[in-house]
Amino acid sequence: MQEFEGRTAVVTGGASGIGLGMCRAFASRGMNLVIADLDEEAMTAALEEFEQKGVRAIADKCDVSDYDQVRALADRAVAEYGGVHVLCNNAGVGIPTSARKMKMADWKWIIDVDLWGPIYGVDVFLPIIEEQGEGHVNTTSSLAGLISSQMMGAYNVAKHGVVALMAALERELRAKKSPVTASVLCPGPINTNISRHSVAYRPGQAKPRADGESSGKLARNIQDMLEQEGMDPDEVGELVANSIAEDKFWILTHPGYAKVVQKQLTALVEDQSLTRA
Ligand SMILES: NC(=O)c1ccc[n+]([C@@H]2O[C@H](COP(=O)([O-])OP(=O)(O)OC[C@H]3O[C@@H](n4cnc5c(N)ncnc54)[C@H](O)[C@@H]3O)[C@@H](O)[C@H]2O)c1
Question: Which residue among 11, 19, 99, 142 is the one 20 to 30 A from 187 at the CA level?
Fold first, then answer.
């Protein structure tokens, strides 16, 4: 069972939403924090919050899609705390865009952040965590990592890749009886600013399209839905910390949605069309 007290957690995308919820959950269990994000203003606010609570925390401006910056993040964490025990590869972006019409720049950006980010995280941090003789690697995927809905082309591809990465990693760690464990978080709708942030970070910015499939309009609709129906990200942070403590691999915020995945698998087994499932 993973212990938290006095250990160090690195959380990417840790200044906002789910990542900040994880930081709060880890801090309340006595962990030191390394908050990695692109948003300096949000990192400053998070640091102030943790300072007031007497939590040891540092913030590092790190673009997870840049290997050298992830390496520098690890160097800084080790210099500050002497090691890392828990890594949460959580930073992510997503815009609703057709798989048919998506711009190559959007494919590249989303896969760089959402898939290469976690791959770099595992490559850089796993050896450091293994050195501690204990620890955990968690990556945030999505329901979009379990089932591919329309209009989320690159996001589906990246998040399926994340599930595959973490499942392969966990199997390998168990096969070699490693003291390190791994898990994947597949959230349903969570009340965060992901759509707003993603539109802002998108290369070249969003431009409305004449056919009404504009990512700007859809992104706004998704943002409204998340605000009205999404789960509180602090609740997700608690769920992740509890699941890590209990050695769970699959972390689902809305387990009822697993039925939709089951339906797709049934269609596969029974050789039915995808869209009837
Ligand atoms: N909100 C949801 O409904 C939902 C559902 C499923 C999965 N997710 C996933 O949860 C994770 C967290 O998202 P969130 O909903 O908390 O959104 P959020 O926008 O509140 O938080 C994401 C954070 O990642 C940071 N970020 C973006 N690009 C980055 C980069 N290249 N390098 C470093 N940091 C970067 C942002 O600045 C932001 O602080 C993402 O991986 C997202 O795909 C969210």
Answer: 99
